[in-house]
């Protein structure tokens, strides 16, 4: 929203921090597959890998055709989920990459 409105968003976390993002389409597909499979247990829903916050930040600026602001300093609190059991149980793998999705969303809004 800030990029679209001509503002300058600031990244206040460590750009080297990795987070696990899952697109809603992938989550919905997993929920349907899990409901149909009727398997008991606890399963992680995630991408199974981390995306650098700095990469996500840069992708949004790139899609808005603007130069990124200097990233803020913060502490690295990287985390992402192990989704191997979920993949095996439901024959499911996420297909939507968050960086590409951000590029498309910001580009479409501009």
Seen as an oligomer or otherwise, the chain set is single chain
SS strand fraction: under 5%
Mean pLDDT: 83
pLDDT below 50 for ≥5 consecutive residues: which ranges? none
Largest sheet: 2 strands, antiparallel
- Helix content class: 40-55%
Judging from the principal axes of the Cα atoms, what is the shape? elongated
Structural class: mainly alpha
End-to-end CA span:
10 Å
Number of strands: 2
TL;DR of this structure?
The protein is mainly alpha-helical and 110 residues long.
Spell out the blueprint of helices and strands:
Layout: E1 18-19, H1 24-37, E2 51-52, H2 53-63, H3 84-90, H4 98-109
Antiparallel strand pairs: 1-2
Folded structure, characterized:
40% of the residues lie in helices and 4% in strands. With 110 residues, the chain is mostly helical. It has a two-stranded antiparallel sheet. The longest helix has 14 residues. The mean pLDDT is 83.
Keywords:
110 residues; two-stranded antiparallel ribbon
């Amino acid at each position: 929203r800030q990029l679209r409105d001509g503002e300058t968003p600031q990244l206040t976390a460590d750009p080297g921090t990795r987070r696990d993002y899952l697109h809603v389409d992938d989550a919905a597909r997993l929920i349907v597959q899990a409901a149909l499979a009727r398997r008991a247990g606890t399963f992680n829903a995630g991408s199974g890998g981390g995306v650098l916050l700095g990469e996500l930040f840069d992708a949004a600026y790139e899609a808005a055709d603007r130069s990124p602001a200097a990233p803020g300093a913060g502490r690295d609190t990287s985390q992402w989920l192990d989704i191997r059991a979920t993949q095996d149980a439901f024959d499911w793998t996420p297909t939507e990459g968050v960086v590409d999705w951000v590029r498309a969303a910001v580009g479409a809004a501009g």
